[in-house]
Specification:
Number of strands: 12
Largest sheet: 10 strands, mixed
Radius of gyration: 18 Å
Number of helices: 11
Helix content: 25-40%
Shape: globular
Strand content: 15-25%
Order of helices and strands: HEHEHEHHEEEHEEEHHHEEHHE
Structural class: alpha/beta
């Protein structure tokens, strides 16, 4: 069996191999940096920050994406006033590591924000992300006021023709999208493409007009330079906020790709459903925003 087919079959089974398992054809240099030719990297079995270090090394290193003196904006999910173990928000340990690595790569500024659903002060604090960003040397900014958002035309949108977009997105040199993989009552799952709803002011319009098409439409406005899917803790039901820790399973996984459609397709399979079960993934694929068919991609598979 070809290594790429082996990876696809592992993802389609809804799981990644357990830590310590062997992968045919891979030697001791599995974690070595260098090639950078992968379309997608899937990592399993480590702590969130350590998995990022292994995964980004396989993608060619953080300096491939973050250049000296660049302005970097990181968009995690910080929407909810819950603790990390509830899996409603991106893992703060992962956010810390990414902010730190961007600064080490020479970024002039690293900003982190989200347009939260719960009170932004409590969500920023209780998610652990505010402290993680500050400890890493980054700057966390609010997204709670309309004055931060400016009119922008979504030229290729079919239903979403314009949106008020946070000024940091409009001014950034590098956009790093950091969703957490979880269940969502309206969208089935929320991952990379849907996470970008947190950079606009009027999300209600998307729900009223056609959620899945608007998600895909906005993907044509500003494609992230890198998508890092946090699947360490995964909320399997009652999303997007969740009810209790019983909604959550521990997967200790991460998916990294420059292609948000590929990242979301792999995330769907990891979640245990098909990409075609998530309409916005299929729509985005048809609009040319990325590749849904993982069999056509060069994928690295890392077990820690």
């Amino acid at each position: 069996m070809k290594r790429r087919d082996f990876i696809i079959k592992s993802l389609q089974g809804g799981i990644l191999l357990t830590a310590g398992a062997s992968i045919p054809g891979l030697g001791e240099n599995i974690f070595a940096s260098g090639s950078g030719n992968y379309d997608l990297v899937a990592v399993k079995g480590g702590a969130p920050g350590d998995m990022f270090d292994k995964g980004i090394a396989s993608m060619g290193g953080i300096k491939k994406f973050v250049k000296p003196n660049s302005k970097v904006v990181i968009k995690p999910n910080i929407g909810w006033d819950t603790t990390p173990e509830r899996a409603a928000n991106t893992n703060p340990e992962l956010v810390y590591r990414v902010v730190k690595r961007c600064l080490e790569a020479g970024a002039k500024e690293v900003y982190v924000f989200d347009h939260t659903c719960d009170d932004w002060r409590r969500a920023y604090s209780n998610s652990g992300i505010e402290k993680a960003v500050k400890d890493a040397g980054g700057t966390i900014v609010p997204g709670n006021s309309e004055r931060y958002y400016h009119d922008a035309e979504v030229k290729k949108g079919k239903l979403l023709k314009q949106a008020k977009v946070h000024e940091l997105i409009l001014e950034s040199d590098v956009l790093i999208n950091m969703p957490i993989l979880k269940h969502h009552g309206s969208a089935r799952i929320t991952v990379s493409l849907k996470n970008l709803m947190g950079v606009v002011w009027d999300r209600g319009y998307w729900h009223r007009t056609g959620l899945h098409q608007c998600i895909a439409d906005f993907g044509t406005f500003r494609k992230p330079d890198l998508n890092i899917v946090d699947a360490y803790y995964v909320m399997k039901k009652n999303g997007p906020r969740g009810v209790s820790k019983s909604d959550v399973v521990v997967m200790k996984s991460q998916i990294i790709s420059t292609d948000p459609v590929a990242a979301d397709s792999a995330s769907a399979l990891l979640f245990g459903i098909k990409p075609d079960d998530v309409p916005y993934i299929t729509i985005a694929d048809s609009m040319g925003l990325g590749v849904k068919d993982l069999k056509s991609l060069n994928i690295d598979r890392i077990v820690m």
